[in-house]
Protein: Beta-carotene isomerase D27-like C-terminal domain-containing protein
Organism: Acorus gramineus
Amino acid sequence: MHATGNSRVVSSLYVIVNYITVFFYFSHYLLFLFYLFDCSSMEALILHRLPLSSSLSSLPSLKPKTLHRNPNFRLCCSSTQSETIEEGKLEYKPGMFDGLFLSFFRHKMVEEVGWDSEKPGYDGLIEVVNRLMMKGRTNLETEEAAVRVLRSLFPPFLLELFQLLIAPLGEGKVAAMMVARATALSCQWLMGPCAVNSVDLPDGSSCQSGVLVQKCKYLEESKCVGICINTCKLPTQTFFNEHMGVPLLMEPNFTDYSCQFKFGVSPPPSADDKALHEPCLDICPNVARRRRLSGKNNVDQCPKV
Ligand SMILES: *[C@@H]1O[C@H](CO)[C@@H](O)[C@H](O)[C@H]1NC(C)=O
C-alpha cells in the first residue's frame, strides 16, 4: 500500500518534470517564431528579459555594465543597439531556475554514476563528473555514459518529435538556430556567459546558429582537457547529431577557455579535429596524479580518443 503510494508520487513527479521540460522547450520554439517575425523583439526578449522570458523567470540574465557594444555578441540582424553588452565581458547572475537546472542535471549524473558527492552545488557536480570520468574504462564508455545523461534530461518523445518535425525544416537551419538559442538561454548556469553568434555553414552561407561561450566554467572548474573532451565536447556533439538531428561542432580553446558551438556544422573525423590533439592542461589534477603514479614526467598524453 505504502509502496504504491510512493511510486505514485514518484511517477507524478516525473510527469510534472516532463511537463516543465516540454513547456520550457516549446517556449524556446515560441521565442524562435517571434524571431522569425521580428528580430528586434527577439533580441529584446532574450537580452532584456521582457514579458515572456521573465514569466519563465528561468532565463539567465546578462547584466549591463557599460554602454559599449561588441559586434561579436549581437544576437541577430536587428538594428536596435543592445546595451546589455560590453567589450568582451558579460556578467552572469544566476537566475531562480538555475539552481533547479543544476540539481536536476546533477541528479541525472548521480543516477548514471551511482555515487554522489557531499559537496553542494557546482563543486559537487564537478566531483561527480570526475567520478564519471574515472568509471569509464575507455573514453568511448565515458562518452556513451554522458550521452545517456544528456538524453535523460528530455522526455524521449520530445527528442523524436524534434528530429522528425523540426530538424528537416529549411535544410536544417531552423533547427540549428533554435538549438543555438535554447543553448544560450538555458545553459549559462553550466558554462557561464554565452551569446548567439554567426557561423559559416558548409554550404558557404552564414547563419546565426553559433554560441560563443566566453570562458567555459565547466572547463575552468574541472581543469582538464580530458574531461572537457570526453564528458562534454564529444557527448554533446553525438547527442545533438544523433538524437536531435542537428550536426554540431564544438571548438574549445584551451588557452582562454572559450568555446565556440557551431550548430549546423558536422565535426571532422577525429584524426582531423584539433581539439582532440591538445596536450593536458598543467592545472589538471589527474595529470599530477598520473605523473606521481608512473614516476615519470613525460606523461603529456591526455586520456582521450
Ligand atoms: C585561443 O585563444 C587565444 C587567446 O585568446 C588565441 O590567441 C588563440 O588564437 C586561440 N586559439 C584558437 C585555436 O582559436
Summary: The first strand starts at residue 61 and ends at 63. Confidence is low (pLDDT under 50) at residues 33-89. The beta strands are 61-63, 91-93, 194-200, 206-213, 248-252, 259-263.
